[in-house]
Amino acid sequence: MAEFTGERVVPGRIDTDLWNEHFARYAFAARLSRRKRVLDAGCGTGYGCAELARSALRVTGADISLEAVSYAAEHYAGPNAQFLAASCEALPFPDACFDLVVAFEVIEHLTGWRTFLQEARRVLTPSGQCVVSTPNRDYYAESRGAGGTNPYHHHEFTYQEFRDELRAVFPHVSLFLQNHSEAVVFQPAKSFSAAEARVESGGGRPEDAHFFVAVCAAAPQTGAPTFVFMPKAANLLREREQHIGKLDREIEACKGSIQELENQRGRLIDMVERQKSELEEKNRWAGKLDEELLEAGTQIRRLEAELESQARGYEAKVAELEQDNEQKTAWGLKLQQEITAKAQELAHCVEVLHQTEQTLLERTNWALELDRRVSELEAGLNLLRGSRWMKLGSALGVGPRLRGE
Among 53, 71, 167, 173, which residue has the least CB neighbours within 10 Å? Predict the structure, then answer.
C-alpha cells in the first residue's frame, strides 16, 4: 500500500478538498487529450492517467518511484493505459512520439527542471502541447508561516519566474490561475445535463493564486477559456451547517475530557512544583558536595605532593641499595671464584693423598712380605744350625760358615 506523505496523492487516503484540487487539473487537461497519445510525467499513483485514458488514444504514466508505479499498474492499468519507472529529466522515449505531455506538481520537485522542460519539448510532436502546474511560491510562503519550506521541493516559482522559464523553451505559453472558489449552483432536480458557467471577471491576481497551470506549445494555440471544475453540485451551506453541528456535538462531548485534562494539568503543575522543590534541595546538596569535592581535591593534591616527595626519597634509597647490592654481588662473585679455585686445589691434594696412600699401602705390603720372607729364612737358618750335619761339619771344620758364628 502506497503511503501518503503530503506530496503523493493516494485515492481514498487524503482530504476531499486536497483530492479535488489535484483531480481538477486532470479534468482540465482531459479536454486536450481526445484521441491523442499522452504522457503523464510524474504520474504518481496513476489516478490521473485513468481520467485521461477515458478520452485519449493511449496514456503512458512515468514516475521515478517504483512504489508509485507498482500501485498505479495494480489499480489503473488498462488497454490504453500503461506505467513505467523513469526519470522526468531523462525520458526514455524517442523524439516526437507524444501529442500531449502533462506534469502536475512535478517541476518544483526537480533539481533539473530546465532539463525536464527540454525533454518534454523533445518528445512532443511539432503541434503537441505540454500542460504544467506548480504552486505559487509567494502564497505558500505566507500560508506555511512558521512551518518553513517544504522539504520535498527543490525550487518553487513566482508567477513571473514560472512564465519566463516556460517561455525559454516553448514559444507559446497560456497561463491559468487555479484557485478554490465558492459557487452558487442551479442544478435540475431530477436529471443531470451539460453545465453552463459564468465567472465574474477581475477576481484573480497572479500573486494571490494558489497554483499556476500553463499550456505550452511550439506552435500557436487557440483561445484559452476559463475552466470550472465542480466536484459535487450540492447545498454546500447545508453541508457546512451539518458539519458545524457535528463539530458542536463533538465539542460538547469533549468538554468532560477537557475538564479532566484541566484536572490532570493541575496535578501535573503540583507535581512539577514538588519536583522543582526537590530539585532545588538537590541543587543545594550538589553545591555542598561540590565544596566537599573541592576540599577533597585540595587534600588529594597535598597527599600527591607528599607521596611524590616520599617517592623521590624511596628512589634514592633504592638506588643506594642497588649500588650496595652490586658491590656485594661483585664481592660474592669474586669469593665464589676463589672458593672454586681452592676447591680445585683441594681436590688435587686429595688426589695426591690418595696416590700417596696407595704407594704407602703397596710399600707396607712389600715390607710385610719381606719380613715374612726374612722370618722364613731365619727359621730355615735356625733349623739348619740345629741339624746334626751342620754340627758335624762345624766340628770337623768343614762345611759353610754362617754369618754370626
Answer: 167
Give the model's pLDDT for residue 402: 57
Q: Which of 46, 71, 47, 74 is nearest to 61 (CA)?
A: 46
3-class DSSP state for residue 40? strand
Residue whose C-alpha is closest to residue 133's, from 214, 227, 205, 21: 214
In the predicted structure, residue 5 carries a pLDDT above the cut 60: no
H or E segment to which residue 217 belongs: strand 211-217
Q: Is residue 242 part of a domain?
A: no
Sheet architecture: strand order including 172-178: 81-85, 58-63, 37-41, 98-104, 124-135, 211-217, 172-178
Task: Please choose, from the candidates 186, 179, 304, the residue with its C-alpha nearest in 3D space to the C-alpha of residue 234.
Answer: 186
Residue 196 lies in a domain: yes
With contact defined as beta carbons under 8 Å apart, do 53 and 80 qualify? yes
For the chain, how long is the longest CA-to-CA vector? 209
Query: 44, 8 in Cβ contact below 8 A?
Result: yes
C-alpha–C-alpha distance, residues 49 and 78, integer Å: 10
| Secondary structure letter of residue 147 according to DSSP | G
Q: CATH number of the domain at 68, please.
A: 3.40.50.150
DSSP of 81-92, one letter per residue? EEEEE-BTTB--
> What domain range is 147 assigned to?
16-234
Contact 86, 64 (CB under 8 A): yes
- The answer to whether the beta carbons of residues 116 and 110 sit under 8 Å apart is yes
What does the pLDDT look like over 150-168, one tens digit per residue?
Answer: 788 999 999 999 999 999 9
